[in-house]
Description:
By secondary structure, this protein is α/β, with parallel strands linked by helices. The protein has a single domain (3-312), classed as Protocatechuate 4,5-dioxygenase, Chain B (3-Layer(aba) Sandwich), CATH 3.40.830. It is built from nine helices and eleven strands. The strands form two sheets. The chain has an eight-stranded mixed beta sheet, sandwiched between helices. Strands 5-4-7 form a three-stranded mixed beta sheet. It starts with a strand and ends with a strand.
Amino acid sequence: MTQALLCMSHSPLLDHANPPADTKTAVEAAFEQARTFVKDFDPELIVNFGPDHYNGFFYDLMPPFCLGYNARGTGDYDSYSGEIDVPTAVAEDLAQFVVDRGIDLAISRRMEVDHGAVQPMEILYDGDVSAKPVLPVFVNSVARPFAPMSRVRALGRAVGEYFADVDRRVLFIGSGGLSHDPPVPQFATASEAQREFLTAGRNPTPEFRAARQANTIETARRFAAGEADIMDLNPEWDRAFLDVCRSGRVEDFDRYTADDMDATAGHSSHEVRTWVAAYSALRACGPYRVEYEFYRPIREYIAGFAITTALPA
């Protein structure tokens, strides 16, 4: 067994919200299942398909996909801030392999990744984001235009094909989702100040970052109380997506379109693109089976919150 998969929702609100005690207990039990799975598999390398929330990637240059040759955490929401252990030579070789298969993959020698990418590592390794070598693969999940799901799947397939015959234990991580609609400005309806931030908002002042984070935390509080003007979670949509993951028919992801996702699952439901890439990578290595699945709609986290693990069948 040389490949495994862990897909999980993330939320910057994990340490900033107070869901009911039974929900917190259930989520922590799911995290413990994930930790045990990863500890037993003991990966030698992690391929981390992650989104960004206008912390590392902006509209001044927004690729659909990007592989980091080097990377560092941005530290948003008190997440990891610092260098990440990226095996650059492997990243360079992987990038060439993927490009040779017709995938228009951007690369970065100075990638910045936010909580969406580092939180799984923090949860799995008690905050030690550099516990294992990581290949960070950014999948645009917030900024239109979005690549069709068929291209996200093709990216994952190419990455999986690269590792299919590699004699080392590789864990594919997909981080994000499921249905949710947090207070992230949409360029089409944003103010001029918001558009400037969405275009070139790198290295914000501590005051700006604190205000932005406080707005999200307050929105979550109001959402849990039924007062926030954001789209509700969609458990039916979430469970249907998990059904596709479990089925192994990754080509069925192709039916998801950006407009429909916005309308039925929220503007940040696009983070499931990281799951599509991860599951497609594992499927490229052969049939798989889902070993564990957790799901609960959690308004305090503004997320249909899910965790799955999978191994080759």
